[in-house]
């Protein structure tokens, strides 16, 4: 019999709703269903006495085919209920219908099959016999099953990998939901089936066996969700019945049907009794399972509980959406595991999305708002994104909830290097600053200086300037692109703000603001034409859809049509401002040049060429001149009809520049005359212009080599040549040689290969002699750059047998050979190379989402080419450092996409079998040893290293990376942004390696006496350690979480008594026996010392 404590909280009837009741039945006639409405009156509460078992119908054939429910449908003979669900080949509805038929024939046999289903879903190979079911209590059965549990492996169906098990969890959950739905009109009220199942799941959820606890908690939470849905339907039905009764009673006596009134009263009474039964069941699950398991040692179990309570509050808000249930979500937001914090946020998003529920969330919001704001800086990317999205929903509910300081902590994240975080912050910024319109803005035009968009563009400029990150306008535009794309594409309004005179009373833009607006305008044009994020945010080129390609072409056409006319005017206005002109001159690179002809815009092209010429004549800044050069290069495209016109203008300009340079040079080099500063300036300015153009254009026909040779030769002979003239003359000569080599190499690309290779080898040798570590870092950086280029060309799903990847791997092999055979000399350099390679491999998350390999994981295949250069003891250290970036799930993966990680780990374990052990074997051995509680001789453990081995002064990472107690659970790389970080504030384990900080003697001097043994000390600087190290615990474990800090400040003003689930009150409530007392202490929930500092730094 389900136990339930006295219910002390009263609820009002739920509000009216149009939700339709399920038409599913327990395979019985609808008329029969309506007559009795699901109450089995003949059953006895609780488990029957042994002699009474089987009175429900003997063994007259079972719907599942034989003892223990062996399923025989579709040729699948002798299959248990677990096997049928696992295979997933039969519809869940038909499986449940077969079980219901079996239950009606002999409920003991069917129930035994259901019990074994839950036992087998936990991975236990034992089975509950009919004899055990008749004579043993649940606790005895669970103890017996624990003894028969397979101790050789920690795997069970919910954690197993492979295609067969991928869908098992969803099938398992679906089976429970369908079972309750199909039984909701009769069987769940027979006071036998549900009582037995809930009692079993409650007992299993309290087991020390992780598999039992995890599986039964999931089953109990899904069972609770299904019951909540039944309770909601009952509430709706009661409301409908009450309205029908009131309508009938209000009729005049002549038209009133007394028999109908009595029928409605009887129906309402039965509905109330059913609701009381469901209420008691939910109380038993909530108090027996939820209040204990939501603080379980395993993160997955805690996450399940929080996810489901969010469903209950959203589904049946009248009963569950109050502070007594919200407090569990609020407390768990301090969980140390990102997965659990993430479930809290997604649960809350479902509640805040419905504005009708906002009034019920006011106390919760005031209590936990600061925590939600701090989670926007969470170290886990996914958590930070969802926290920002939740704050955006809070912003929707009320503008007064979040203070200016709260908002500012989110604003700066638009410059984060992690794009999902930046996009979420951009949406928050847009909703806060741009989505509110005052009454005075309603009648404003759509575009132009006086338009609504004009005001919003000004607001964007003001925000950009206040952020003091002016060189990162592309990041701001990318963050706002998805939510404010229409605003950022309003180039007419931007041009109007730059060219039109301000209206009377309107404040004009300052020079600084105009510069910022031009930069934002350029970044928006680039984003529209290139359709990919700025450097540091993207994961390679993405294939555009047909719709995206059409939008890209339309935007490019519109940009050309607008700026072909406006750009000459803008250049004329700002021609003396180097910064503005440099940005404006980049615009033609994004033009569709054909439109100059088709749109009859040739006169505007002529105007543009004149303005560019004037800019060249006015400026000597390198950035401006190179921008002019690149503009000519973009316009001089032989594919378009405007080529001849632009080529003539370019040739005329260069003719004048070269003639001027030769004339000035002749006067400058006259013998016997001392050149003055004015002559030197004229030569330098002209030479700068020519050099800038020579970078992008072949000027061989002007024979500049002779002039530059004379200039440099005179400087060598006299020794009085100005430094800047020498620099630019050498640079110009450099371009001359490059253009000449380019022409020569067109006919023979391999002519100079051997000589070039010898030069490179000698260069590498010299650099290694100068600094071995920096040389190694340069080699690994070059491999990373080649790898990134390959990703850009081939995409993230490239073939590892492709020529590009094999070429990079072959280069890595050759790099490895250059380190020679003396491993001691190159020890530090090789270790540093592996460190940088590992960090690069785990730097970017998978674009496919969580659970997939990191984007650069395949780089470990390349890095493995250097594993043979590591000393044996260094392989162990590198292996430990690798595991800092791995999660426990990664260690279990065996799919092809994880082969680079597997092969790299194997390369680090080769030759060091006594130093390194696999994560899995280590995990299993620890689990088994603790489960069996048998003392083992010391000789059976890992061989201890000789004293001093791996602790020499040459060792790498000896200060920190060897002090890792549980290397499997390590944090993901931090978010990066565009804010410089003070080096003095770096955390200890983020500093440079910690390798040369102290000698081994100094290390031993600083350690307390008890740490001078061979055991590995705890690293107290580690970040991201799990709650109770949840994924490293053995199968038999302490199943309750511990905490270090108390949350008494969160308890103030909240009702912390365990909440009874009290649906609308009933006069015919049937009391059940008491649950065991709830020992829940609300002050010992979660540790709020979770690392939430999102370290931001410039890429």
TrEMBL record:
Annotated segments matching region Disordered: 1-72, 923-951, 1055-1080
Family statement drawn from the similarity comment of this UniProt entry: Belongs to the SCC3 family.
Superkingdom assignment: Eukaryota
Primary location: nucleus
Organism of provenance: Oncorhynchus kisutch
Segments forming a coiled coil: 231-284
Pfam family, one: SCD
Molecular function, one GO term: chromatin binding
Key words, A-Z: Cell cycle, Cell division, Chromosome, Chromosome partition, Coiled coil, Nucleus
Basic residues composition-biased segments: 36-48
Protein's cellular compartments: Nucleus; Chromosome; Chromosome, Centromere
Gene Ontology annotations of biological process type: cell division; chromosome segregation; sister chromatid cohesion
Location of the SCD domain: 290-375
Name this protein carries in UniProt: Cohesin subunit SA
Function in brief: Component of cohesin complex, a complex required for the cohesion of sister chromatids after DNA replication. The cohesin complex apparently forms a large proteinaceous ring within which sister chromatids can be trapped. At anaphase, the complex is cleaved and dissociates from chromatin, allowing sister chromatids to segregate.
Residue ranges, compositional bias (Polar residues): 12-24
A cellular component term, taken from the record's GO annotations: cohesin complex
Comp. bias (Gly residues): 56-68
Quaternary structure (record): Part of the cohesin complex which is composed of a heterodimer between a SMC1 protein (SMC1A or SMC1B) and SMC3, which are attached via their hinge domain, and RAD21 which link them at their heads, and one STAG protein.
InterPro entries membership: ARM-type_fold, Cohesin_Scc3/SA, HEAT_SCC3-SA, SCD, STAG
Taxon lineage: Eukaryota, Metazoa, Chordata, Craniata, Vertebrata
Repressor found in the keyword field: no
């Amino acid at each position: 019999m389900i136990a339930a404590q006295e219910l002390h909280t009263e609820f009002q009837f739920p509000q009216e709703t149009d939700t339709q009741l399920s038409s599913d039945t327990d395979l019985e006639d609808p008329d029969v269903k309506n007559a009795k409405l699901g109450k089995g009156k003949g059953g006895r509460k609780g488990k029957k006495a042994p002699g009474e078992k089987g009175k429900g119908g003997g063994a007259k054939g079972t719907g599942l085919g034989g003892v223990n429910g062996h399923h025989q449908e579709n040729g699948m003979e002798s299959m248990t209920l677990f096997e049928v669900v696992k295979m997933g080949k039969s519809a869940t509805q038909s499986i449940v219908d077969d079980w219901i038929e079996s239950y009606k024939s002999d409920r003991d046999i069917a129930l035994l099959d259901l019990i074994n289903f839950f036992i087998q879903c936990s991975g236990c190979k034992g089975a509950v016999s009919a004899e055990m079911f008749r004579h043993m209590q649940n606790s005895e059965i669970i103890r017996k099953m624990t003894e028969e549990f397979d101790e050789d492996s920690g795997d069970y169906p919910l954690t197993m990998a492979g295609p067969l098990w991928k869908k098992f969890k969803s099938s398992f959950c679906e089976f429970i939901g369908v079972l309750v739905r199909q039984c909701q009109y009769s069987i769940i009220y027979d006071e036998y089936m549900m009582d037995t199942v809930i009692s079993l799941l409650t007992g299993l959820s309290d087991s020390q066996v992780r598999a039992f606890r995890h599986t039964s908690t999931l089953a109990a939470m899904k069972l609770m969700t299904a019951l909540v849905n039944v309770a909601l339907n009952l509430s709706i039905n009661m409301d409908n019945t009450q309205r029908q009764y009131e309508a009938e009673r209000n009729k005049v006596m002549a038209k009133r049907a007394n028999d109908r009134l009595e029928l409605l009263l009887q129906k309402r009474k039965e509905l109330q009794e059913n609701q009381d039964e469901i209420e008691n069941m939910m109380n038993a699950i909530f108090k027996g399972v939820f209040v204990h398991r939501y603080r379980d040692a395993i993160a997955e179990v805690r996450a399940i509980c929080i996810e489901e309570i969010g469903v209950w509050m959203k589904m049946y808000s009248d009963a569950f959406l109050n502070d007594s249930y919200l407090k569990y979500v609020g407390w768990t937001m301090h969980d140390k595991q990102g997965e659990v914090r993430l479930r809290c946020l997604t649960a809350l998003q479902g509640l805040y999305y419905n504005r009708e529920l906002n009034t019920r969330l006011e106390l919760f919001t005031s209590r936990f708002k600061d925590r939600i704001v701090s989670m926007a800086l969470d170290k886990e990317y996914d958590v930070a994104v969802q926290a920002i999205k939740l704050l955006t929903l809070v912003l929707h509910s009320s503008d007064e909830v979040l203070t200016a300081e709260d908002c500012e902590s989110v604003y700066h994240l638009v410059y984060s290097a992690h794009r999902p975080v930046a996009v979420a912050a951009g949406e928050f910024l847009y909703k806060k600053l741009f989505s509110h319109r005052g009454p005075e803005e309603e009648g404003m035009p759509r575009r132009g200086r006086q338009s609504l968009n004009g005001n919003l563009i000004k607001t964007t400029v003001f925000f950009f300037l206040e952020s003091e990150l002016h060189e990162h306008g592309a990041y701001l535009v990318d963050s706002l692109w998805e939510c404010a794309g229409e605003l950022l594409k309003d180039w007419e309004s931007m041009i109007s703000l730059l060219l039109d005179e301000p209206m009377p009373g309107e404040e004009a833009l300052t020079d600084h603001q105009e510069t910022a607006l031009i930069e934002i305008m350029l970044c928006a044009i680039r984003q529209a034409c290139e359709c990919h994020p700025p450097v540091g945010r993207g994961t390679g080129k993405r294939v555009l859809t047909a719709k995206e390609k059409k939008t890209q072409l339309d935007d490019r056409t519109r940009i050309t049509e607008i700026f072909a006319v406006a750009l000459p005017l803008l250049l004329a206005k700002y021609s003396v401002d180097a910064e503005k002109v440099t940005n404006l001159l980049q615009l033609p690179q994004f033009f569709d040049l054909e439109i100059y002809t088709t749109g009859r815009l040739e006169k505007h092209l002529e105007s543009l060429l004149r303005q560019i010429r004037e800019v060249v004549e006015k400026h000597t800044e390198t950035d401006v001149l190179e921008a002019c050069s690149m503009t000519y290069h973009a316009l001089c495209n032989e594919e378009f009809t405007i080529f001849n016109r632009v080529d003539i203008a370019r040739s005329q300009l260069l003719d004048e520049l070269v003639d001027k340079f030769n004339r000035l040079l002749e006067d400058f080099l006259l013998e016997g005359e001392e050149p003055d500063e004015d002559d030197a300036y004229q030569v330098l300015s002209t030479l700068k212009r020519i050099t800038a153009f020579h970078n992008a254009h072949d000027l061989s026909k002007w024979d500049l080599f002779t002039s530059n040779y004379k200039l440099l030769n005179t400087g060598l002979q006299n020794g009085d040549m100005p430094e800047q003239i020498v620099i630019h003359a050498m640079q110009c000569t450099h371009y001359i040689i490059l253009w000449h080599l380019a022409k020569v190499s067109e006919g023979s690309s391999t002519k100079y290969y051997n000589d070039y290779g010898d030069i490179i080898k000698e260069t590498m040798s010299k650099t290694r002699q100068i600094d071995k570590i920096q040389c190694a870092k340069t080699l690994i950086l070059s491999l990373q750059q080649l790898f990134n280029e390959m990703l850009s060309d081939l995409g993230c799903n490239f073939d590892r047998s492709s020529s590009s990847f094999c070429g990079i791997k072959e280069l890595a092999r050759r790099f490895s050979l250059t380190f020679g055979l003396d491993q001691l000399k190159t020890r530090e350099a090789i270790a540093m190379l592996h460190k940088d390679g590992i960090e690069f491999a785990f730097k970017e998350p998978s674009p496919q989402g969580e659970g997939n390999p990191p984007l650069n994981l395949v780089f470990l295949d390349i890095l493995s080419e250097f594993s043979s250069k590591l000393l044996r003891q260094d392989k162990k250290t590198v292996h430990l450092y690798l595991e800092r970036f791995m999660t426990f799930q990664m260690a279990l993966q065996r799919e092809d996409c994880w082969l680079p990680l597997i092969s790299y780990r194997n390369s680090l374990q080769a030759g060091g079998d006594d130093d390194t052990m696999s994560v899995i074997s280590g995990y299993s051995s620890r689990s088994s040893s603790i489960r069996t509680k048998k003392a083992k001789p010391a000789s059976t453990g890992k061989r201890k290293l000789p004293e001093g081995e791996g602790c020499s002064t040459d060792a790498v990472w000896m200060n920190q990376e060897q002090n890792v107690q549980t290397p499997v659970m390590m944090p993901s790389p931090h978010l990066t942004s565009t804010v410089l970080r003070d080096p003095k504030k770096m955390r200890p384990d983020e500093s440079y390696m910690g390798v040369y900080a102290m000698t081994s003697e100094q290390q031993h001097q600083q350690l307390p006496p008890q740490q001078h043994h061979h055991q590995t000390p705890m690293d107290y600087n580690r970040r991201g350690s799990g709650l109770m190290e949840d994924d490293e615990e053995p199968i038999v474990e302490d199943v309750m979480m511990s905490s270090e800090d108390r949350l008494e400040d969160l308890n103030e003003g909240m009702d912390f008594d365990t909440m009874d689930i009290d649906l609308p009150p009933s006069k015919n409530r049937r009391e059940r026996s008491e649950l065991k007392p709830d020992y829940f202490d609300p002050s010992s929930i979660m540790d709020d010392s979770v690392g939430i500092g999102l370290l931001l730094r410039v890429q």
